[in-house]
Amino acid sequence: MDKLIAGQVVTYQGDPFDIPAEEAVQVLPQAAILVRDGKVVSVGPRDTLRAKHPEATLIDHGSALILPGFIDAHAHYPQTAMIASWGKRLIDWLNTYTFPEEAKFADRAYADEIAGRYLDLLLANGTTTVTSFCTIHPGSVEALFEAAAQRNMRIVAGKTCMDRPETTPDFLRDTAKAAYDESKALIERWHGTGRATYAITPRFSPTSTPEQLDALGQLWSEYPTCLMQTHLSEQTDEIEWVKGLYPDARDYLDTYEHFGLVREGALFGHAIHLEPREIAHLQANDCSLIHCPTSNTFIGSGLFDMGARKAEALRVGLATDTGGGSSFSMLRTMAAAYEIGQLRHTALHPAQLLWLATRGSAEALRMEDRIGSIAAGMEADFAVIDLASTPAIAQRAITAETIWEEIFPTIMMGDDRAVIASYVMGERAAS
User: Fold this and answer.
1) For the chain, how many helices (H) and strands (E)?
2) Which long-range contacts (CB under 8 A, 24 or more apart) does 307-314 make?
3) Taking all residues of the chain, what is their mean pLDDT, rounded to a whole number?
4) At what angle are helices 138-151 and 108-124 packed, to 10 degrees?
5) pLDDT value of position 431
6) Which helix (H) or strand (E) holds 260?
7) How far is 47 from 265, CA to CA, in rounded Å?
8) Are the C-beta atoms of residues 104 and 418 closer than 8 Å to each other?
9) Three-state SS for 269?
């Protein structure tokens, strides 16, 4: 059965960091999206499409904003239950909260519980695709892929690999061989199954031995259509730690580059404190950087330079980084990206923020042919946003003279209350 989903529809004509933002991102008033078999067939004026397709079921969201479903390009679903845990710096925080919580995922029932809870929290916040680290336990990966399949969500995930004895607790450590063998088995089972994509996942070079990174580089060469996700240059003391563990490396990126883990399809979370050589090699290899603004402020990591990275034509996605990030909401994440941009003297336009949370993240994941925009042939994943969801937002939005003035208060003050509905492959997700 065809559907017409109507509202104010956001469409993309280009990258708002390359051309004027309001040319690149356009909002079509009184528009509709024709959906058939989980895909977008066409987008246009509501009345025109209604007349042309009278048999279609009309779902009219009035003046609500219809966006591509948000894409969270870097997260840790096993940290769901410990989000907003008070901490000091990254390494202390990992040892105090993260590693003990991740140990619980040896219990498959616990992994299933958290995976379902996590994805339902995402859908309640308008997020329809996520890229997540799991734990060292293969069952934690199975749990997330199965929960996503039940909801028909597009998912990127992988077994987190960490085997260095001096930096990882013995209860949360695998080996180079286990990382290779277990990741390979998961790739064979899940990669390309339904809407699932496997990401080879060394946590970061300080928690892996050179032998493990070498094994994962070999695995990626055998399965080149997988993605690879890890962390890079999140904190300055982390960088010094890496230099001590890899004294022969030219810089942090080199600890991955040496083992074949720097190429297209690589997703580097944070990437705040980059050296010129690292930037040049990330550009040359068409890697993706994932900006995690609420995490970067919560853990005190630093200020990502969006203006510089986009000017260098790097792929940049946006992410919550839960539970280092302090919110499951991509609206809150966009607000934090704006605030960090202000501190970096780069005033991000609301059109750029929406683009980063959707099309930008899709490009970072190399999935822009499937998700991240509303256009013919794309998968019908949408977030429907109320632009007057609270009294505080409504009293500001009502004075707006342009659509962007109306949207911006929701970006800055919105949360799950602003999300009227999430659609996954054209079907409204249960609320």
Assistant:
1) 18, 16
2) 307/341, 307/344, 307/345, 307/346, 309/271, 310/17, 311/17, 312/279, 312/283, 313/283, 314/279, 314/282, 314/283, 314/287, 314/288, 314/289
3) 96
4) 40
5) 65
6) none
7) 42
8) no
9) strand
The radius of gyration of the chain from alpha carbons, rounded to an integer in Å, stands at: 21
Break the chain down into helix, strand, coil percent, rounded to 5.
Answer: 45, 25, 35
Count of Cβ atoms closer than 10 Å to residue 85 Cβ: 16
In sequence order, what are the beta bridge partners of 12? 25
- Decide if pLDDT at 148 tops 90: yes
Please tell me the predicted confidence (pLDDT) of residue 205.
Answer: 97
Q: Are 21 and 34 in contact (CB under 8 A)?
A: no
Q: Per-residue pLDDT averaged across 410-422, rounded?
A: 98
- Among residues 97, 74, 80, 361, the alpha carbon closest in space to that of 234 is found at 74
CA separation for the pair 234, 197 (Å, rounded): 25
Whole-number pLDDT of residue 123: 98
Q: Assess contact for 231 and 291: CB atoms under 8 A.
A: no
Q: CA 315 to CA 62: how far, in whole Å?
A: 34
In this structure, how many other beta carbons lie within 10 angstroms of the beta carbon of residue 244? 9
Convert the pLDDT of each residue in 258-279 to its tens digit. 999 999 999 999 999 999 999 9
Model confidence at 229: pLDDT above 90: yes
Asked whether residue 93 carries a pLDDT value surpassing 80, the answer given is no
Give the N- to C-terminal CA distance of the chain in Å, as an integer: 22
| Per-residue tokens: 264 | 């297209």
